[in-house]
Amino acid sequence: MDDGGIQEEPPTARFLAPTRSGGSRWVDGSEVDSSESAPWSLDDERSVGAASAGDASATVSVGTAAGAMSRASSGAFRRRLGKRPRRVDSLDVEAMDVRGAHGHSSKEISLLSTVAMAFQTLGVVYGDMGTSPLYVFSDVFSKVPIKSEVEILGALSLVMYTIALIPFAKYVFIVLKANDNGEGGTFALYSLICRYAKVSLLPNQQRVDEQISSFRLKLPTPELERAMCVKDYLEKKPLFKNTLLFLVLMGTSMVIGDGILTPSMSVMSAVSGLQGQVPGFDTDAVVVISIFVLLLLFSVQRFGTGKVGFMFAPILALWFLNLGSIGIYNIIKYDISVVKAFNPVYIYLFFKINGIKAWSALGGCVLCITGAEAMFADLGHFSVKSIQVAFTAVVFPCLLIAYMGQAAYLMKNPRAVERIFYDSVPEVLFWPVFVIATLAAMIASQAMISATFSCIKQAMALGCFPRIKIIHTSKRVMGQIYIPVMNWFLMVMCIIIVATFRSTNDIANAYGIAEVGVMMVSTALVTLVMLLIWQTNLFLVLCFPILFGAVEFVYLTAVLSKIREGGWLPLAFSSLFLCIMYTWNYGSVLKYQSEMRGKISLDFILDLGATLGTMRVPGIGLVYNELVQGIPSIFGQLLVTLPAMHSTIVFVCIKYVPVPYVPLEERFLFRRVGQKDYHMFRCVARYGYKDVRKEDHGFFEQL
């Protein structure tokens, strides 16, 4: 296949690089005897991609060498080819103790394991969506006053079909399948697209990266021509590359913006249940208690979610059980006729009677699907089937019943809209439900805080965010991280929001904009995945953005109407982080290009001789840089400045490839630079965007 296509190499293929002495070497560092050497051609060298002509470490495919070998050397070559030594990841020793750290197992998961995993998803994935009954109807009916049963049934029908269309139809059945080796989220979609098309702006890709087992490149056969056409457009037009990166960064920045509002909204909605139940508990008391809970929530982040994670799933399971049971109780006791809301005609009547007010109420209706993106973003911790089972069997029916129960209560008590959730709870169950609701709100907040940390880490891995301190709070679970700077930033912002808005309805006006924006970004990226990667009929591909994109656009217009009422807040936060990430990525690309222009010629180094024009002392010198080929300019400064150089020089390049995890045995590429007596090598350490870097330089030197 030509250089622009995608080439699948056999898993046992290894590469040769020429040396000045006429011999060759393997890229994993082992030497090849002269009797085993194979001639190589410039055409093969070009097919590798990024290798420079003057770099003796350029890799060449061994596929065309067999014809020029003698029978003896050919036999030795084949024997050497069949012996692929297992390379040791010397820069990530701690990760060796983590079982299953590099992706999902290809083995089929048993039914019992799927059910157990589905139970765990309740505490991690569905916290935000599960706490939405606390505030959805109170926000909807703050825009549309209840004058008859049409408003109640219309709003209920809107909520039911919104949940059925976006989380259930879109995410459960379509988006979850667009995962990157079991990883989800906007960065996962971006890395998946980057593997099939060269759209990354950082020019450090190597053809040998495609040999990583987690690449799994499989082009569609029936739609190959269409896929290649899309691929060519993406690769040849810088505008498309920048637009794609802009979409990904915008989606990520909106997740961060949502992470600022979710703790404030969830905690304040739970605490506000005490108003009207405890005498003298006014708005000031709600604000003070909410701030105290937020301080507690963010203060325990440094201990890691693993310390309390085992409590999340049982609490959320109990929460969903309460939603379902109380909903059934209210339906039977107050008005069973709310089942008429399954008829979508009530949506039409709702808009016909209320007009522009009904359109404004969509901004409150969208709150019922906040957290839907978490089903895809948190996919890396679970399996597709477990998330599907949990939503279909537990979350979806319990939420529908809960909203139907609240609507049945409003049929008889239309003035109870402000505290609809707690007023619809039987008096004897108020305090147990309040405690569970508060814990559920904290868990929902925890999920968004963790998602924010993960987004920042992935953005740093792709060169889109400044390097800040990351603390890994668990030695067993790689995804559990803590970022002190972001934690305290989120805490301060949440406290300011609670102290400023002082009402859940006011915060709700700012809530939802970021969520809808993330949904639209995922719709655009999944559509691109369908066109480029999936074997999907073009008609079905067009139906996806037309159907879901149209619905999400309508919701976006509704939530944008609340910009003056507070909707500007998440947009401001998202714009701030978008500018930071895009500017940092732009600077990273310029920095790499500058280093490429300033690299030192290999001929100049060779002219200095084996001593490099200075004294060589025993030891290993590690020269860290970002170049995947060539000698960095900093090495020339070291030669001029230092009185001596180590006897062995290793140019270490740590780069990220568009996969979630790189297997330990495939992480390193070792190549000789120059002649053998120069003792100079290049080491390219490849990490996925979810890999944990724990460098142990002492162990690396010993290896």
Automatic annotation (TrEMBL):
The chain crosses the membrane at residues 109-127, 152-173, 244-265, 285-303, 310-332, 358-377, 389-409, 429-456, 477-501, 507-531, 538-560, 566-584. It is a multi-pass membrane protein. One of its GO terms (cellular component) is membrane. Keywords: Ion transport, Membrane, Potassium, Potassium transport, Transmembrane, Transmembrane helix, Transport. The keyword Iron does not apply. The keyword Hydrolase does not apply. Coiled coil: none annotated. Residues 618-692 form the K+ potassium transporter C-terminal domain. Residues 118-605 form the K+ potassium transporter integral membrane domain. GO terms for molecular function: potassium ion transmembrane transporter activity. It is found in: Membrane. Residues 1-49 are annotated as: Disordered. Belongs to the HAK/KUP transporter (TC 2.A.72.3) family. Potassium transporter. This is Potassium transporter. It comes from Phragmites australis (Common reed). The lineage of its organism: Eukaryota, Viridiplantae, Streptophyta, Embryophyta, Tracheophyta.
